[in-house]
Amino acid sequence: MTPLSLALAHSLPEVILAVGVLGLVLYGALRGKASDGPVTEIAVGLLGAAILIILLGFKEQAILFDGAVIDDGFGRFMKVLALIGSLTALVMGQDFLARERIDKFEFPILVLLATLGMMVLISAQNFIAMYLGLELMSLALYVLAAFNRDNLRASEAGLKYFVLGALSSGMLLYGASLIYGFAGTVDFAGVAAATQGHVSIGIIFGLVFLMTGLAFKMSAVPFHMWTPDVYEGAPTPVTAFFGSAVKMAAVAITVRVLMTAFPGAETQWRQIIVFISILSMALGAFAAIGQTNIKRLMAYSAIGHVGFALVGLAAGTQDGVFGVMVYMAIYLVMTLGSFAAILSMRVAGHAVEQISDLAGLAKTNPLMAFFFAMLMFSLAGIPPLAGFFAKWYVFNAAIQAHLYPLAVIGVLSSAVAAYYYLRVVKIMYFDEPAPAFDPPTPALRVVLAITSLFVLFLFAYPALFIDATATAAKSLF
Fold first, then answer.
1. For the whole model, what pTM was predicted?
2. Segment 210-219, tens digit of pLDDT
3. Which residues have C-beta within 8 Å of that of residue 426, sequence separation ≥ 6?
4. Beta-strand relationship, 346-347 and 350-351
5. What residues does each domain of the chain span?
6. Residue pair 378/392 in contact by the 8 Å Cβ criterion
7. Which has the closest alpha carbon to 70: 256, 212, 240, 241?
8. How many of the other CB atoms lie within 10 Å of CB of 233?
9. Cis bond before residue 3 (omega within 30° of 0)
């Protein structure tokens, strides 16, 4: 095979999504306004095809397009997680969009565009490819946040995310340009070579600005300010997309940049990661206690969980990266299940979002209450559920790296955060019943059941999942 044909073969999932988006946009120009057509079904098929190609395709590592992108086990693992998040958010969101009378046609196209940007971002091997993927993802996300044009909260969320996102992108780009100026290259491998033995003050400044932009995308403190408002204001399927697929891509590129471009500056970037990890865990634990809106609570929960995941990254070891990947995979499942339950919160055809609306759910819908309770227990890290093992691996990596204070703060933050997860369970099981919810759609029932059973029974046979994750983590080294 020629270098170009080999590169296209390794990039087949991205090619499929790009061609699919162009085809759907063309269809949109030709369609009649009477029907949205099978746009969502085609988009789900494209995402499913991309997942199958990644799982069944090339297994060896390849650097493509003159070193701009890389196809390796770490990238393939994180791409599959992002694709699963996108596909599930699409499937869960269609009934919601139809009931709220939101035009559905553009939604799957924007999700595909954002997912394409995520895949480029995850595979980036230099700062130019990273920025292209980041902007392709972000531009679609700005529109998705304000997708419900007739809703004031959604418009406010979209505007806030756009303004702050543009600021963070500028800071990231400034940091990348500083690194280029002092290292003389935009390739991650070249930057790694330039930082061996001596890290100049210019590269440290560039690294700080770079981490500012990446922390914004991960919604890590102190660059989290957009998260609660956007989670609450955006349509719930969009919030589910932000909390699942987008989070996978942001954490993946942060891990790749730090581990492959700055191994010689580990002392410097570890201080940054430890700082934002502690702040994120603490804010996520305490700020969520007083929340009454379930989506806003999930926003602070997401901030806290990013902090927990970064505990593994702070270790700077292969075990640490493995812990981050395990954490993000389990967090993806817990998030999708939680939002399946939130999307099922409808009374007399209208969506409700207050935690008090869950009161007495165990009496009106015991099966949904049980599944949602399992997800809350898992998010709190209660053994033997999957969320416990996620925290176990990242805390263990921190202890192996002698980061004892970070691990202790993480455990204490987890104990505080358990309060508001258990409060949701208490409201469902012990409060007087609120009006019963409408029967959930089959898609929401399936997602809620599968995710709950995963977190409930992962401990019974974790070997396949753990082995696959360990192999993917090893490829980064």
1. 0.94
2. 999 999 999 9
3. none
4. antiparallel
5. 264-477
6. no
7. 256
8. 25
9. no
